[in-house]
User: Fold this.
Amino acid sequence: MYFAKRNSEEPEIVIENTVVYACESASCNGWMRKDFASENYVCPMCGSQLIEEVRELPKIQTDFTSFK
Assistant:
């Protein structure tokens, strides 16, 4: 049997300042990235308003290469 050696290198995690919309309710800790937020700025979990803030989050890869 042949077992391929998996890539032993872990991808580097890049932390960057990211704009997010966070729920203003003290009892709810819902939030979402600005890139994925809807236009109505209402918390999907509790219905309160969302406020804009900046958090340090891992970067999400948005450009993918397809196999040819």
Observations:
- The chain is about 0% helix and 30% strand.
- Residues 28-59 form one domain.
